[in-house]
Amino acid sequence: MSKTAFKRIYTRISQITKATCSLKAENIGYEELAIVGGRLAQVVKIVGDEITLQIFSGTEGIPTNAEVMFLGRPPSLRIGQDMEGRFLNAYGDPIDGGPELTGAEQEIGGPSVNPVRREQPSQLITTGIAGIDLNNTLVTGQKIPFFADPDQPFNQIMALLALRADADKIILGGMGLSNDDYLFYKKSFMNAGSLDRIIAFVNTTDDPPVERLMVPDMALAAAEHYASGKNEKVLVLLTDMTLYADALSIVSNRMDQIPSKDSMPGSLYSDLAKIYEKAVQFPDGGSITIIAVTTLSGGDITHAIPDNTGYITEGQLFLRRDTEVGKVLIDPFRSLSRLKQLVIGDQTREDHPQIMNTAIRLYADALNARTKQENGFDLTEYDERALTFSTQYKEKLLAVDVNLSMNEMLDEGWKLLSDHFSRNEVGIREDLVNKYWPAEK
Amino acid sequence: MTRGKVSGIIANLVIVDVKDPVVQNEICMILHPEASLMAEVIKIGENKAYVQVFESTRGLKTGTEVEFSGKMLEVSLGPGILSRNYDGLQNDLDAMKGIFLRRGEYTSPLNDQKRWEFVPLQAKGTAVIAGDWLGEVTENRIAHKIMVPFTLEGEWMIESIAVEGKYTVNDTIATLGNKTGEKRDVTMVQKWPVKRPLKAFRHKPRPFRILETGIRAIDTLNPITEGGTGFIPGPFGCGKTVLQHAISRQAEADIVIVAACGERANEVVEIFKEFPELEDARTGAKLIERTTIIANTSNMPVAAREASVYTAMTLAEYYRNMGLKVLLLADSTSRWAQALREMSNRMEELPGPDAFPMDLPAIISNFYARAGYVELHNDATGSITFIGTVSPAGGNLKEPVTEATKKAARCFYALSQERADSKRYPAIDPVDSYSKYMEYEELQESLKETISDQWTGMVEHSRDMIIKGKEVMEQINILGDDGVPIEHHVLFWKSEVIDFIILQQDGFDEVDRMTPLKRQEYMLKKVLGIVDTEFRFAKFEEVAEYFRSIINVMKQMNYSEFHSDQFRDYETQLDSLINERNIV
Predict the structure, then answer these.
(1) ipTM over 0.95 threshold
(2) B422: which chain A residues are within 8 Å (Cβ-Cβ)?
(3) Distances in Å between the alpha carbon of A265 and those of A247, B54, B345?
(4) CATH code for B3-72?
(5) Per-residue pLDDT tens over the stretch B37-83
(6) Which CATH class is domain A7-70?
């Protein structure tokens, strides 16, 4: 505490709103932190000697004579080995009952990577989920969100995916997590026995919403430490970015900014891009891969949050509950991994691109057949086969509960094709068919 | 020099107390102890200048000294711009140290050590005006003209000019004098404020010549001209960037300037890694040799994003004035508009639609107006063809940026979600898209000369077929396959032949990705031959099967080298397929 002993303490707050307070002070740096009546705050506006502070946990109960102390530094995280295996809050303070962090203070929300120093993402990430590995292959250094309705089990899928992916570190940024989901993540990580490669920054629904604005920066500062400093493969999970964006809109509203589409701040695109663009493949082998969750309202992707996200991220994974097989699927049509071209058929087996495209095309035939059926038209024999194929395709490959190796998925793909179609119906390159078409029984 | 002191900070808007004169839009440096930060004056009040900082203002304090430069945001123009990767303020990104960008790090855009082989083009005693070519150096195979500074007014006399030899950009290569006795030493580098259009040409006639892109959906159906303007709006995932990259690789241009404005960094990395490897099909040179990239990706400072498109445009104007064909691509102009919105918002201006500034349409149309085909004072011609992408919010084309751009740009390449979903790439919608240049008599004339007399008629014919095909398909969907006459199926499938063989193009195939105009003409003739042929069918089921095989053979033609044996084999196969069912 000795280093803060000389800080001047102010006690005359001139104005208090729902989220901010203003006072006269001197020699204050923009974005520096302050403590107002024991609560953490940050400088958001300076006009003359009047400083406006945003109080993260809200201003309820703050008196005009509250003690205000400026810390002289922007938000930072104590980075060091003792972060590993820890659960921290949005300020980087432990919430797991463990000891305080002792590492060196490092600013969060730091500068971005010079684009000419980036490498092209090139390393395959496997998850065992065929809807991802087969159809929407992920690559290190990629940024991709799940687009899911709030009732879908995205947190379970994220946890599963994180534990299966071959990452050196997994960093969880939880924003507006329900306490139950927080405990779920904690339990899954502990049960997997891989707690030491996990660091979690968690803001739960019990915490003030504005605090969660710090979570992505905290998580990504930690990620950069391992990816850039130690050349590790880091996987960052951010859930739920919709709640993050909601917090942005709360702040911009309280700062009297003019809202743009869907009451979101006009800077939403830049705000989100600043986070997602931290995903990077470094030249020395380290990488930051970001997998996020953006919850949708009724599957509407034209809302400002998913819309801006889609323009920033390298694809999206669409979750959909299928009533026919009663499982959650990764929708092959609306999902997309923009970087899959960099690895498929190259780091995976040669038949990967063809199997992927053919199965999706035949699945589309099945959907057309279904529409035909629903409109009361007769089905051809081909339509019937396409329909049975699609049911099995969903169950054996698209469902999120499958766990197969890359080659098993490809073999399963060939099996499904050969079960329902003839060789010349699939339109796959001759040499591949000869090599991989399952032997007749 | 005017000096001031910081008195307020709201994100990257800084208020500076200043007593001496200040110029609107001039550049100032905020002398933050960690690093001096560059900013632009965007509003002036009583003894106050409102400046937008091109960097993060974290840690900035009131009372910090500010120095005003008296100059607007300028770029350095001279040999050595090609093959560079700049940020939005023309800092050389490769010259920066470290992996992370450090704020306040400004690097020189040109190499001042390199010696260029200068050849004078004018003799002592010649009268010259701004923009006239004094001499040239060879920059990546391009004759880079050294021009009379664009800022000079009136007529000047060459009092001395350097002899052929090696010079650095800062060496004096000529001395000019005017009637009033003023003298000016001219070097190979000059500066120009980015927001002011660089004129120095005689006049700007209407564009008349097609700019070949090798993309059939553009060249055949909706061609863009040399000096034309176009834009590509489309929801995410429809292939805007892929299409722009294809244009940047293939277009028949001397110089390509790519402004990556507020988009994904990994997409720029793709250009960084590919362009030094890929060859320009026309010259055999590496693509990077004719390309300059302005990278202001989405995580780089927002204010510099606004500047980046102007920086790119000014570089394009500079090369245009050398009599070169310049192609300028900006991805995406929506991010630029958003940068304007963020600033307008911070200045508490009354907002226009969707909180964009009221003058957004004017800003956009002024920018597009800087493109064009020009005749220089020495009768040489140059051009800037500009294609911007637009990222409409929610894929809705009725939003302010798309609407304002539609008024300014003459070609409209609408990317359709439906086409992208069914993997019909490039997803340019053949019905909604247009090129106003098709109405230009000048273009029609030149198409007649370069392609054939019938060309425009053929294009119209195929466009009609596409529209008819779409109408028929809707009927089939409502009435069912057997609810319409067989002719309807035939009509629909004929339009599908146009779609699959002309509109769709495999951007990943070595041959198909780029179709020269001659080949486009050949294939369109083939396709229309089929469209105009009458076929015999007994039942509707035969129609789809038959045309699928036609399409399959013609696709193989598209994949084969033009007029190769393989190509001819497929052509023979096609002819016999046609003979199976045609009614002679």
Answers:
(1) no
(2) 364
(3) 10, 20, 10
(4) 2.40.10.170
(5) 999 999 999 999 999 999 999 999 999 999 999 999 999 999 999 99
(6) mainly beta
